[in-house]
Amino acid sequence: MSKQACRKRNVAKRLTCLCKSGSEAKTGQGGHGGGGSSNSRYKSGGDSPKPWGSSLLQAFLGWMLFVILGSAANDLMHAMDQKLDTAGWKISIIIPALNEEGCIRALLQKLYALYAPEALEIIVVDGGSSDRTVAEAQRGGATQVLVSSQRGRAAQMNVGAAAASGDILVFMHADTTKPPADLPQVLRRALAEPRTCMVGMLTLIRGSPEKQRSDSASNSSEVPVQHTKGSHGAAADDHEKDGPLLKFMTFHQCIKTAFYPMLLQPVWYLQGFRLLFGDQVMCCRRNDFTAVQGFKASLPIMEDADLCIRMHKAGPSEACGLGYKGHGRVHQLMGSVTETSGRRLEEW
Fold first, then answer.
1. pLDDT tens digit string along 38-57?
2. How far apart are CA 136 and CA 99, in angstroms?
3. Cα–Cα distance, 304 to 171 (Å, whole number)
4. Measured in whole angstroms, how far is the alpha carbon of residue 267 from the centre of its chain?
5. Rounded CA gap, 154 and 267, in Å?
6. pLDDT of 277-336, one tens digit each?
7. Which among 326, 311, 269, 310 is positioned nearest to 73, based on CA atoms?
8. d(CA 245, CA 348)
9. 260 in the Ramachandran plot: left (φ > 0), alpha (ψ -120 to 50) or beta?
10. What is the Cα–Cα distance from 260 to 274, expressed in whole angstroms?
11. Could you tell me if 97 and 157 are in contact, meaning their C-beta atoms sit under 8 angstroms apart?
């Protein structure tokens, strides 16, 4: 074979190789045929739809972000409202009680130590206790000790509100262990906002200190260390009396206040509605409370949530002289903390 023939043959082979490589590249880009590389197949499958769960999660997170930002914008609008003059407003604390002889006197002593003379009166309403609750409340120095003819917290709190003469009503459970130290100042500032109808505190729920000591004693086989009394003795004693923090119950209490309205009534959430409960120390203006006729005495439970809903729908009363028509704000004061006993929750 001549040299010229060999050259022609080599050129033909090269052209054949180039044509084959070009056809494979076009097949890979078009997504047809099985001769494409693995990278080509991944590229062709890039337009496949995403799993529906991922899209649903993105939509949910986007909606939550919208609701949170909308609520923040609503708070800013309320902050620009002209404030009420609450400097001279008096406070009435109403405590419903039933068989609370073990804690009612200690609570009253704490309240007088914290709030006197800020609180105009402290009213204890007994629901027909079979123990010495009434006697202990009188010994604790309650302004009034009333006995409700109808059992149930709703009826008891209505009796206390009817007897109260303060401008601000505070509904506090008898098993509250640590009331907020700055409650009078916080309430006057919060309820000075015209559209705010009700506020509640951030609640920490603690277990029984007796149960904590019994559990630690049963789990420990060592001899207890005897601590000498010194500058930290009183603080250590106080810490022992607190009881363990019930983290899950505290977290659930905080979350349901915001997330129940956010998920079930997002429009209300945007308008400033939060779902408060009795152990969060619910507080409101007396005129607003009277305008909605107080708690529903027929409700054995959830009377606190029902009151929040009705006060939100009614808005500030005309007796407040605000000239505002619309939904009221019911919100939680995250900067004010109270502690309550989780003894009944532990029994569950």
1. 444 444 445 556 566 678 88
2. 11
3. 10
4. 18
5. 28
6. 999 999 999 999 999 999 999 999 999 999 999 999 999 887 666 666 778 999 899 889
7. 269
8. 17
9. alpha
10. 8
11. no
How far CA 333 is from CA of 178, 203, 215, 229, 338, in Å, comes to 16, 10, 34, 38, 11
Strand 119-126 to 144-147 pairing: parallel
pLDDT digits (tens, 9 = 90+) for 78-121: 666 778 889 889 999 999 999 999 999 999 999 999 998 878 89
* Residue 74 · residue 92 · CB < 8 Å: no
Q: How far apart are CA 339 and CA 25, in angstroms?
A: 71
Round to whole Å and give the CA distance between 334 and 161: 26
* C-alpha dist (Å) from residue 216 to 221, 242, 244: 10, 15, 11
For residue 11 the two structure tokens come to 């050129």
Answer yes or no: pTM beyond 0.90: no
Q: Which residue is it, tokens 């401008």?
A: 167
Rounded CA separation 71/68 (Å): 5
* Strands across the sheet containing 144-147: 144-147, 119-126, 91-97, 168-171, 282-285, 196-206, 329-341, 176-178
* Interior angle at CA 264, CA 259 and CA 270, nearest 5: 70
In the 3-class helix/strand/coil scheme, how is the chain assigned residue by residue? CCHHHHHHHHHHHHHHHHHHHHHHHHHHHHCCCCCCCHHHHHHHHHHCCCCHHHHHHHHHHHHHHHHHHHHHHHHHHHHCCCCCCCCCCCEEEEEEECCCCCCHHHHHHHHHHHHCCCEEEEEEEECCCCCCHHHHHHHCCCCEEEECCCCCHHHHHHHHHHHCCCCEEEECCCCEEECCCCHHHHHHHHCCCCCEEEEEEEEEEECCHHHHHHHHHHHCCCCCCCCCCCCCHHHHHHHHHHCCECHHHHHHHHHHHHHHHHHHCHHHHHCCECCCCHHHCEEEEHHHHHHCCCCCCCCCCCHHHHHHHHHHHHCCCHHHCCCCCCCCEEEEEEEEEEEEECHHHHHC
